[in-house]
Amino acid sequence: MGYDARSAWSLMREAIASFDPEMADELELGLSALRDTAGVDLESDLIEQLTGEFAEILVPIQLDPATPGVELGMGMMMSPFLMGLTGIPGSSPGSVVVVGLHETGPVEDMLETLLQVSGAGELIEDEQVAGRWMTSVVPPDVSLRPSWAFLDDALLFSLQAEPVRAVLLQAAEDAPPSWLEGEGRRAALAADDAAFAWSAADLDRWLQAEVVSPLAWMSWMFPEDPAASDSGAPEPADALHGILATLPELVAEHLRGTMCSTTTVDRGVLVYRVWTQ
Predict the structure, then answer these.
(1) Domain stops at, among 176, 192, 211
(2) What pLDDT is attached to residue 136?
(3) How far is CA 5 from CA 30, 48, 64, 113, in A?
(4) Confidence (pTM)
(5) Handedness of CA 72, 78, 84, 89 (dihedral sign)
(6) Same domain, 64 and 136
(7) CA 185, CA 170: separation in Å to the nearest integer?
(8) CA-to-CA distance for 63 and 187, rounded, in angstroms?
């Protein structure tokens, strides 16, 4: 997906200054404090390094739906599967966000400085994967493990370590051809050269990650009730477990293939095209 991050940042600051000058002053004070205390210039170290290219990769990984998540308060937990239901890029299990960068050095230095200032150094683990370094934050008693790594012109980020590890292995020089290279998938996407966003997915894997896994996580909140009503109407829990019992076979047998989409602006109208192979 293409996005002019620098212009968006400027427009946002102009809008804030127009509608709430006091908030604009507070934002400038915060940016100045960050420069003075940590030596981090958010605009030059991050905003100006963004190429405007963003992508999300879904890696097929296995996570235990019962693993603990992040405590939100009032006994609520934000698990990887519940986060997947939000639709936010990078929130689904196995998701890796790819951020295009002009230069990786300033962003690497900024992240290292922020980690030192935050005092999170004791939670950091480094691992070398396919000749590149992957950094992870490992908080205690939490299943989430935010991880990132740098390619020559991009930042990889995920809430889990395994997806970043998998993408680094695929990006290695001796890696086999990617799934996108097969059966003309890349050429089919490139045919819509006016699009600013493209996506291609192995349909059954996408459904497993976006539908089956979140529903499986929800199932433990609704255990089957042997003493359910005899009215004949299925209980919600029974209906959910019934869907889960048939969905994997349905996906595997009948929903295999490639799902592609492009997003284009045509005379001021947002056009979203989806097709399958």
Answers:
(1) 176
(2) 92
(3) 20, 8, 36, 22
(4) 0.68
(5) positive
(6) yes
(7) 17
(8) 33
124, 141, 176 - which closes a domain: 176
* Angle, CA 61 vertex, CA 59 and CA 64 arms, to 5°: 145
Residue 191: exposed, middle, or buried by beta-carbon count in 10 A (0-12, 13-18, 19+)? exposed
Neighbours of 167 (CB within 10 A): 21
Indicate whether 119 and 239 sit together in one domain. Answer: no
C-alpha span between 265 and 53 (Å, rounded): 17
- The per-residue pLDDT for 276 is 67
CA distance 206 to 93: 11
Question: Three-state DSSP class for 124?
Answer: strand
What is the Rg, in whole angstroms, of the alpha carbon atoms belonging to the chain?
Answer: 22
CB-CB contact of 271 with 263 (8 Å)? yes
Category of 232 on φ-ψ map: left (φ > 0), alpha (ψ -120 to 50) or beta: left
Instruction: Give per-10-residue mean pLDDT for the chain (277 aa).
Output: 74 88 89 87 89 81 52 44 53 80 92 83 88 90 84 90 88 77 75 74 69 66 56 59 70 67 78 71
